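Hi F.,

I've been meaning to write this up properly since the lab meeting, where we talked about keeping a consistent format for the predictions we share between groups. The idea is simple: the sequence comes first, exactly as it goes in, then the structure tokens exactly as they come out, then a line or two of notes. No screenshots and no reformatting. I'm using this chain as the first example so we have something concrete to point to.
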Amino acid sequence: MIARAADEAAMAAGLPRTRRDAVLLVDVITGLPGGVAAGEEERFFVAVYKELSGAH
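Output, unedited:
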């Protein structure tokens, strides 16, 4: 999924596609929204992790 998005962005910018043996790394910083109830913080971050990792 990330590799495909990187390829599409590269091609749109007129750059070569990502090599198939390349390793892509991504950092994501997630903040806790104000609407999350007290005591639900861990549940929120676990749900975010599962969504981003494709483990849902």
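Notes:
The mean pLDDT is 85.
Helices lie at 2-12, 41-53.

If this format works for you, I'll send the rest the same way.

G.
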